[in-house]
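Problem 3 from the worked examples.
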Amino acid sequence: MFLDPRRFVGRVFPILRWSRTYNTSTCIGDLIAGITVALTLIPQSIAYASLAGFEPQYGLYASFAGGFVYGIMGTCPQINIGPTALLSLLTFTYTNGKNPDYAILLCFIGGIIQLLAGVVQLGFLVEFVSLPVVSGFTSAAAVTIASSQIKGLFGLNFNAETFISTWREVFHHIGSTRFEDTLLGLSCCIVLMGMKALKDIKFKDSQDEKAGRTVILQRSLWFVGVGRNAFVVLIASVVAFFVHEDRNRPFILTGDITPGLPVPQLPPFHTMIGNATIYAGEMLSHLGSGLLVVPLVGVISNVAIAKAFSKGRTLDATQEIVALGACNIIGAFFRSFPVNGSFTRSAVSDASGVRTPAAGFYTGIIVLLTLGLLTPYFYYIPRAALSAVIVCAVLHMVDIAITKKLWHTNRLDLIPLLGTFVFGLILGVEIGLGCGVAIDMLLLLFYQSRPRLDIRYVNESSFPPHFSMHPVGGLHFASAEKVRSKLISLRNRKKIEPLQNLSVVTDGVVVNSTEERRATSNILVIYCHALCRLDYTFLQSIKMLVQEWSRNGRVVWCDASPNIKEQLNSVIQDPLFCDTEQLGLLLMEITMATQTGNTSDTRL
C-alpha cells in the first residue's frame, strides 16, 4: 500500500485540517485564551529562568517559539508549550555552573530524540513508567523546587543543588536572613494563595436583572485569580521601584535584562569558558544522562496533559511527541532551554474557552512584544516575588491524595511511589525516577514469578477425582521453578492433608481446603484455554514436571490452542490432549487403567 501524501501531511500538520473551519468566533475564543495564558506565562518564565540558573531573558526566549510550532503541529488546543518548573529544575541539574549554551544544546538534542521517538513509534515506552512512579517523581520535584526557593524568599545567598544540601545551607545561613525580602516574599505567597481562591468563587444563579452583573463580577474575579502572578509581580516591582533609592537597597532585584529579540542562529556545538573552547563532544559528555532523562520527562508530562484534556477524544500520542520534539528543535535556534506543556497554563487555557491550538500564536506574539518593549522595566522585579511565584506554582504538584487511593486499591504500588519520592529527595529527582522504574520492573518480575494458577482438587460425581490447574496469560521463566515445585508437592502426597491456598470442589461446590480431610489422585488436568504463551525455560520445567508426575499418574492438557500444542510437542513425548467434551470420558479411562494396574501405556 502506498502512503497518501495528503493524509501524511495532514497528520503531521493538523493546522491544515482545523484551519478550514476557522472563523471569527473561534478566533475570539483563542485570542482571549492566548492573552490570559500570557499573563501567567511571562512572570513564570522569568522565574523559571532563575530556577534553571540563567538570566531572566532566557525564560522569555523559551516562551514564544513553542507556541507557534505547537499551533501548527499540536493536536490539543489547551496545551501551552513553554518553560516549566520540572524541566527547569532538570536543566539546572545538568547545566549548573555552565553557561546557557549547554542548556540550548540540551534543548536541541533532546528535541531530536523526542522527534525520532515519535517517528519510529516509540511512544509505547512511556507506558513502562507507571502512574505511582510519575506521582512520586513530580512530588519529589515539587518539594525540591520549593526548597530551592527558600533562599530567595529569605534573601539568602548560597549555592546548593540537592534537597538535602539546600536545607543544610539554609540552617547554616539562617542568621543572614534579610527581613525586607522575607516580609515581601511571604506577603506575595499569601496574596497569591488568596487570589487563587478568587477564581473558584461561585455565585448563586439569579434570574432577575442582577444576573448580568453577577456574571460580570464572577468573570472578573476569575480573570484576576488567573492573572495573579502578573499582578503580584507588578505590585512588588512598583514597591521596589519607590524604595530603591534607599541606600540599604532593601530588596534583592532581578537586575538588568538584555533587551530585544533573540537573533536566529544554529544551536551551539562549541562554547567558550574563560579562554578555553569546549567542543560538542565534551559538552554532550557533561550533559550525560540528561540527554535521555530530560526528553523522557517532557514526553511523559506532555502526553499526560493531552490525555487529561482530550475529553474522550482519541489522542494521537505519537503526533504529540513529534510536535514536542519540533518545539524544542526550533526553540533551540532562538536560545531556548528545554520546554514542554504546563498543566497549570493548560488549565487556564481550557477555562478561558480556547478553541484551537492557534491560541499559542497569540501568546507567542505577546511574549515577543514583551521582549521588544518591556524588558527594561523588569530590572525592579524582586527576587523574593519570583520565588513566591515558583513556590505557589509547584505546591499543587505534590500528590498526597494518591497514597489513600493506592492504600485501598493496591498497596504494593506504594513501594514505587515512596521509593521514587524518597530517592528523588536524597539522590536527585532524575536518579529517583530511575530508581522508581527499577522498582516497577522488580514488581513486574515478582508478579510474573507468582502467576495466578487456580489449583483445585476436584471430587465431583461426574468426574473421577483429579487436580486441576487454570493458568492465565503466559507462563515465563521467573515462575517456572515455583510452579513446578508446587505441583510436584501435590503428586508426592499419597493422602493429601489440608493444604494452604488449595480449593476443593465437591459436587460443584468450592469449599475451603480445611474442610476436606483426605484427597487422593494421580491425575493433573491443565486447562489451557486462557494460556497464550510458554517460554523456553518454562517448557523445560514442564518437561521435568511431566516426567516426575507420570511415574504413577497422568498429565492431561485440556483445550490447548494450536500454538500451545506445538510448543508442548517440541519438548514432551506424546502429550495427552483433549477438549472439555472429551475430558470426562478420558478421565474415566485413565482411572480404570490405573486401578487395573495397566499404567505402562498411559505414561507420557
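Problem 4, a separate protein:
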Amino acid sequence: MNRIVALDVDGVLADFDGHWRQCAELVLGLVVPQVHEDHQLRTRYGLNRQECDAVWRDYHDDEWSRLPLYAHAADLVYALEDLGCQVWAVTSIDVRHRAARAESLSGLIPAGRIVCVGHAASASAKADVLRDLGAVAFLDDHPANINAAMYAVNLSVLLDRGYHGLEATEYGVTVIVKTRWIFRCW
C-alpha cells in the first residue's frame, strides 16, 4: 500500500516568516515590526516595494540554506515514518534553491524526496506533483494549495497560521488552527 505523505516546508517544517524577518532587519538595518496579519510579507511588515525587493534579493542569494526548522519538525516527520509513511517535501521555491532546501532540512527529508514547484507556480502545480507521487495526504499552510490538493490526495490538511488575505478553505479540508501558538484540530 502506498503511504506517501507530502509536506510543505515554509511555515510547516521551517520558520520562514521569522527567518525572512531577521533577514529584512539585517538588510534594511532597522527593526521590522509586524504591523498586519496579511500573508503578503510587504504588507505584514509595512515595507515599501523597494525594501521588500532588497530583502528578497538577499534572501535568494544566501538564505534558503539557513532556514531554521521548527522544534516540532523532526517529531512530525519521525511520527509519520513510524506509521509507515514515506515523507516527501513539496515546496514552492525555485528548483535552483533545491540544494539549499535540502541543506536547511538537514537530512530530515532526503534530497531525492524534495520537489520544488517554483515560487510563481499555481496551486495546481503542487496538486499535480501529489497526484504523480500517489500521495495519500498533504499538509500546507496556504489554502489555495490545500484546496487544489483536495482532488489529488485522500487527506488535505491546512495548517492555519492566521494570515489575512488568503482564500477560504473548501468543505472537506481538515484545518489545524493556530491559537496563541497552540495548534488545535477541528
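Solution to problem 4. The domain at 4-15+68-185 is CATH 3.40.50.1000 (Rossmann fold). Residues 49-62 form the longest helix (14 residues).
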